[in-house]
């Protein structure tokens, strides 16, 4: 009697990671990391809270304003002003999405699972875009409606049906999303959390201050296209004489985002992990 032995079937080639798999993985990752929740919570609270507080301050001093200052009132821009401070948290989130992986060494594991770096970074950018856009819409609409409750006490409230208002409120969410994407690109280029956050804050807050001191008409024109000056116009319901139009400002800020991300993609593909 002879014993028969059965051979185990040969293992097939390893399954190739698809872009959909990586996108799903990045979506799960960004939603489950604790820092994401706390960073977004800070952005939500600061944006909505300051929008409400600043609207209270504005209405309390409204009667003392000159007729010229009153004529400059933009119900959308003045309702979303808190986003100019809350955007810091969204920028920090964009940085942490990539620098956190470098800090823990997780980047090597991620690239082993998905060696096609362009697809990996694209999946990360898409996951970040989806999350921030949804949260940004909530923040922007909540800030607007909260401010309208305050402005109604002085008959200054507006509605989404007013010219340019709906576009401006949606523009606030898009602005936060683009800030997160620019920050992702900066984080990818620098690979260091503190350095990337400092760079983003410098671009968003320090450059406009420097621009305001530039002399002559060329200084005024340059100041208009600085990142936060241009991007901030996305939250304005109407045009201003000393700034880009809302559409032009959004286009300029989107161009900054594309340039930074393109540089990040190029660097990511050329450098070691």
Treating each run of at least 4 consecutive H or I residues as one helix, how many helices? 12
Please outline the major beta sheet.
none
* Envelope shape: globular
Oligomer kind: single chain
Rg from Cα: 23 Å
Total domain modules? 1
The gist of it:
With 273 residues, the chain is an all-alpha fold. Helix content is 74%, strand content 0%. The chain has 12 helices and no strands.
Word description of this protein:
With 273 residues, the protein is mostly helical. It has one domain (19-270). Helix content is 74%, strand content 0%. The chain is built from twelve helices and no strands. Helix 5 packs antiparallel against helix 7. The longest helix has 35 residues, at 117-151. The model is unreliable at 1-6 and 10-14 (pLDDT under 50). The chain crosses the membrane at residues 37-58, 78-100, 121-145, 165-190, 197-218, 244-268. GO terms for molecular function: ABC-type transporter activity. Keywords: Membrane, Transmembrane, Transmembrane helix. This is ABC-2 family transporter.
